[in-house]
Amino acid sequence: MRLIFFTIYLGILHGQVLDEMYHTTDEIYEFLDTLNRSEHVGHLVHLDTIGYSTQDNIPIIAVRISDNAHIKEDEPRVLFIGQVHAEEIMGVEVVISLIKDLLFPDISIQNHMNILVQYLDIWLIPTANPEGLNVVHDGLDLSYRKNKRDLSPSGAFPNSVFDYDPSIGNDVDGVDLNRNFSFNWAFGDTFLEPDNSDYASHYDYYKGEEPFSENESIAIRDLALENDFVFSIVWHSSRSGNLSEKVFTSWKWDETKESPDLGIMKSIADEFAGNIPTEDGSSTYLSVFSGSRNGKLHDWFYRETGCIQYLVECGTSNLQPHALLLENTIYRTKPAMVYLMDRAIGYYTDAGQITGIVRDNSSGIPIEGVEVEVLEHTGSVLKPRLTNEFGRYRRILDAGTYTLLFKSEGFEPKQLTVTANNSGITQQDVYLTPEDIYQISIDLQHDGTEIIEVEGTVSNEFSVYPITIYSGSNSFSFRGGNYEITFLMDGEFMPWEMNFALDSDIHLTVPYDLGTNYDLNLSLPWPHSVGEWYYNGSLLRSQEDIYYENGILADGMLMESDLYDINGSNRVVVSVDHRFETEWDHDEIRVSILDQDNNILGTKAWTGNEWDEFREHLIYATTDGSFSSARVRIEFSPDETVNYRGWEIREIRMSAINDAYVSITENSRNYSPKIPLRISGIYPNPSYGNLLVNINNLPAGNAVLNIYNILGQNVFSRKITSQSKADRSISLDLGSLEGHSTGSGMFFIQIQSASEQAVKKCIIIKN
Q1: CA separation for the pair 118, 73 (Å, rounded)
Q2: Are strands 629-637 and 564-565 parallel, antiparallel or unpaired?
Q3: Is the sign of the CA dihedral 166, 172, 173, 178 positive or negative?
């Protein structure tokens, strides 16, 4: 152990002895094992070793309590995690006490507990950081926070010594498990260290070398992905007291940058917090938003799985209080946990929930993995919400009417309008119709007699299928739907890509031809450039620093290449090899092909996170005639708040050719892609009144754009006519409404067609 310097305070802290009421790791596991072997409650208890700690290989045990604990049943699932940070051991005791109440209830609560055990699948993890718990109980460091990942004072490599310091913030070993989850992991370190050259683990908040580098985080991750938890609590304690007695709801990073379900999550958090009196008895816990982005469990849980998880800071600055205060704290937390379980089943509380089973219409068999999207509570930041092994979906909602979209590979999508109310859970079963199977025939054409082999992919919104085609005819079978076929054709040969709706057998011809390649050298300034693009010798980056700035320019950043003569070509393709991390739905990157009059021939945009590896994407344009000239434009448009790692481009190239096989594929039944109407974005948002509404899949015919204020009053209407199903962008000036200057506030923009509707909120700020 490295040299330790003691202050008077630290000496007192180090000499402190924990109250015997606190459970050691061995005592926890002995208690759980006793329950598991009990003749009286053993059938209600199932122990699951969900993983092992990173350094000391200690089992991480989850206890499952239900009326049939040893089998999975079609019941709502909830999860309570007692301790993630080593020194925050009060949560261990809160969870153990809840276990005892569920299995050995006092007569006054017996009926209530029995109902919860009967109708819920309850998972409890007393300690998710057992080796950190041992550090505290062994008296080595009562302020230790992390696990015991073996690191070295000189770098990120083991030295076979547990390097710790009983002072706050100076521990060498260990990773902060609550900063080791993949969502926003890049922001986990307080010091934002980009690498380990000046080793950054020597403080309490070290995020690890990569997301899920720690076994403890993996164990929690896998448990969450295997079980569709409805609610979860992770217990913490504030070492400073500054965050004490607070309930944190998933993210609100700015006044307008809310998580899609923030309203319902915050209202439940308010009720939860209101059930826990403060230590001094003057009030109740405070329900607050989580404003940080740093790889925490509760944000990851919600984003990745849909589980509403709250981070609760229990206690005050007394991290390990004496027995009387500990018992009092435990007693005060119980009504909140019971409320959350009641809310999952609608027992003696609001029951706002829509649930049901999705089945195959042809066989009646439940379908696992169906995407269930509530269109009023959605966004690209969220991973798809999927039906579980019983075909069950479940969404906790406020009372109201919602539009639900059900999608699964191989089935026709289905959209329903369903009403949730607080008097009882709404049951809405759904039957999906299987798509028919069709043939895709592909001819690979080329000069010469040798056999050519080309690898490519067939992809839809659910899956990517690698395929290989050879000279001559090739045939593949797929269920109906919307697909993209891509052949990158490495080297000088022209890439090929096509999007199509498959509702009949189709025939495609893919040429294996040399095209004309145009040098788009990223190291050279392009003729037209806006913004501070940065080239480091191998990559073109949107900024020099780790993270891009917000609101870089009013018009964003862009670069345009030279105008190239492609006369005689009817197919032009731009290939971009890149990776990106931008704010979902708000900060967009785009690559476009333009002609000499700046008309867009082809374009593709991205937003969100594809940072883990570089990927090659194609932007293409075809014509039945001939192109004259073309240039490439790249654009980056961040808004005023919330930034990420930006955009890195490794290579970008343009090729053009006269393709004898360019044609529009005709489908026998004039198939229309079954993609719902939606408002994909409002820019800027918030705005001073002038904004652009991007609409996807506007049906042919008449539609109406309505604007409602927060009271539900219609303050604006405009008729929209479309000749065919298409994407539209509509400019609005909302500086005045109904003849009056528009005040600041929240408004809802609705697009209403004959058969569909879409709604998205916007913020108007008075200038």
Answers
A1: 11
A2: antiparallel
A3: positive
Contact 121, 66 (CB under 8 A): yes
Residue 647 in tokens: 């955009």
Place of tokens 């938003």: 289
Beta carbons of 174 and 219 less than 8 angstroms apart: no
Query: What is each CA distance from 364 to 15, 80, 434, 515, in whole angstroms?
Result: 65, 35, 11, 52
User: Per mean pLDDT, which range of 3-17, 68-82, 373-387, 745-759 is the poorest?
Assistant: 3-17
Ordered by where they begin, the domains of the chain are 8-147+225-345 (3.40.630.10), 358-429 (2.60.40.1120), 437-511 (2.60.40.1120), 516-657 (2.60.120.260), 678-764 (2.60.40.3080)
Helices (H) and strands (E) in the chain, counts: 9, 44
> Can you tell me the mean pLDDT for 608-624?
95
Q: Looking at residue 16, what is its pLDDT?
A: 60
Only one residue has tokens 């080239």, namely 535
- Please give the distance of CA 542 from its chain centroid, rounded to a whole number: 23
Stretch 750-754: mean pLDDT, rounded?
84
Q: Which of 113-122, 196-205, 757-766 has the lowest mean pLDDT?
A: 196-205
Report the distance separating Cα 460 and Cα 440, nearest Å: 14
pLDDT of residue 698: 85
For residue 505, the surrounding DSSP H or E stretch is: none
Nearest to 376 by CA among 593, 6, 676: 676
CA distance 415 to 289: 32
Q: Which residues contact 645 (CB under 8 A, 6 or more apart)?
A: 186, 546, 547, 548, 580, 581, 611
For 639, the 3-state DSSP assignment is: coil
List the one residue out of 407, 537, 383 whose CA is nearest residue 460.
407
